[in-house]
């Protein structure tokens, strides 16, 4: 029932150890060694985009592996950089592009862009984190979401940041017992629902983030365990009896699961 919580606790209790184990995987170790040996040789955006092995490694490190094919878009992201609010990356709602352009800041650093810490050890560190999360997701999507939320939580300052990110939205909706159907409603209404229920400043506190993620994990496991029993009363309570109900009583849900988390 609580496999997501158990796995989350196992991985996060000593995150350094978990990441080291990922880094020591033969394929990760090999690809990272190649990256570090060659990224410094890249002197231009064209060099970068034309070396598929380096480029794809970097894209995965920033969670953009599903956009590797979009070289025209990434060229624009890299060419304009992040120096002003009017650059292409800064206009995109997805922060991953800003992070990528900042790490590979050809616009500001030119040929020296790949010498920065962000482009070298910073990127390899992120690659290990992304691999850890993806490997977790291969076994349990809820675990991937929990790890991702934990990593992103401290940077959340607005409900719209959550709503612009499908993974963050899924975690919040699940943790609060909201039906995913509310995503089709007015964006400002959704933002208000979040701020009415959650003090976003709490996400700066690792202890409170852990409790929030534990609640998400319990809700996730309960929903998954009962997904084949649509008439089960607990499932009805968790998923919502109708699309007209936007929120549920989280205390009731957690009581049903015999788990208590403070807010």
Explain the layout of strands and helices.
Elements: H1 3-13, H2 15-23, H3 26-38, H4 45-50, H5 52-61, H6 71-80, H7 88-91, H8 95-103, H9 106-109, H10 121-139, H11 141-152, H12 159-163, H13 166-176, H14 187-197, H15 206-225, H16 233-239, H17 250-256
Helix pairs in contact: 1-11, 1-15, 2-10, 3-10, 5-10, 6-8, 10-11, 11-13, 11-15, 13-15
Protein name: DUF1217 domain-containing protein
Pfam families: DUF1217 (PF06748)
Structural overview:
The protein has 263 residues and is mainly alpha-helical. Helix content is 64%, strand content 0%. It is built from 17 helices and no strands. The chain has helices spanning 3-13, 15-23, 26-38, 45-50, 52-61, 71-80, 88-91, 95-103, 106-109, 121-139, 141-152, 159-163, 166-176, 187-197, 206-225, 233-239, 250-256. Helix 5 packs across helix 10. The longest helix is centred in the last third of the chain and has 20 residues, at 206-225. It is globular. The two termini are 22 Å apart.
